[in-house]
Design a protein that fits this description.
This protein has 260 residues and is an alpha/beta fold. The protein has eight helices and ten strands. The strands form three sheets. Strands 5-2-6-1-10-7 form a six-stranded mixed sheet, sandwiched between helices. Helix 4 packs across helix 8. The chain is globular. Its EC number is 1.13.-.-. It is an enzyme of class 1 (oxidoreductase). Keywords: Dioxygenase, Metal-binding, Oxidoreductase, Zinc. GO terms for molecular function: dioxygenase activity.
Length: 260
């Protein structure tokens, strides 16, 4: 069976209630419907920082990681029993530099930054999925990690960096999904759209000092960091990516990017 070369994605993944947002669900489903079918999915989520690089469980019976609190009980009953990507885990380890330690966590599978968007994009849960940790928040090192993972795209592996274009949760004052976006979120989103369109990786790397809306848009930076894995996995990080999703949810920017 022929395998299609896959793009790399940066997506804003949402909290568990994403699955109740009709518009966002339709946007994510349309996106996955336009992609070739992956042979496997490799995902890096903002919600798992662990150094050195840590490969999650390939056992589909390991429970999901419900790494959130204060939500209705039904969100803690979510399931996503996708096959474990055993071969992919071995390939990821082999792509790391000689002498660099790679850990395996057999007790940790998918957190909500991984499974929530996948339940919408690939609800049948038939594609093998592997999550690996963010081993650092240094953009340059994450770009290098993405470059090392790039050859997997030729084998039909969909590489996803799952974060959020803005994530200033401490500064939100209106919890409604359709709440107006704060000025800092709109300014950061506009800047990100311009930098994505220009392929301006240098500015994206320097977001802490160059982006308007900081530090409110990212008081901690883990939700922006998966972008750099996706950029590194692309053929040319300075190419213009396709901005597939835009708009706001709870005032946070949903802007999401597809890279060839």
């Amino acid at each position: 069976m022929s395998v299609s070369r896959m793009p790399a994605l940066f997506l804003s993944h949402g909290a568990p209630p994403l699955v109740d947002d009709t518009r966002w669900v339709s946007e994510l489903r349309a996106w996955s419907g336009d992609l070739p079918r992956p042979s496997a999915i490799l995902i890096v989520s903002a919600h798992w920082e662990s150094a050195p690089l840590t490969i999650g469980s390939t056992d589909p019976t390991v429970p999901l990681t419900y790494d959130f609190g204060g939500f209705p009980e039904r969100y803690y009953r979510a399931r996503y029993d996708a096959p474990g990507a055993v071969d992919l885990a071995a390939q990821v380890a082999a792509l790391m530099p000689d002498g660099q330690a790679v850990h395996h966590d057999t007790d940790r599978r998918l957190d909500h930054g991984a499974y929530v968007p996948l339940t919408v994009m690939y609800p049948e849960a038939q594609i093998p999925v592997l999550q690996v940790s963010l081993p650092t928040l240094d953009p340059e090192k994450l770009l290098d990690l993405g470059r090392r993972l790039r050859p997997l795209r030729d084998q039909g592996v969909l590489i996803i960096g799952s974060g959020f274009t803005t994530h200033g949760l401490p500064f939100l004052r209106d919890p409604r999904p359709d709440a107006p976006a704060p000025t800092w979120s709109k300014e950061y989103d506009s800047w990100a759209a311009e930098r994505f369109a220009a392929g301006d990786v240098e500015s994206l790397v320097r977001f802490r000092t160059e982006a308007p809306g900081m530090p409110y848009a990212h008081p901690t930076v883990e939700h922006w960091s998966p972008l750099f894995v996706a950029l590194g996995a692309s053929d040319d990080p300075e190419q213009q990516g396709q901005q597939i999703i835009d708009g706001f949810w709870m005032g946070l920017s949903k802007r999401s990017l597809q890279l060839s």
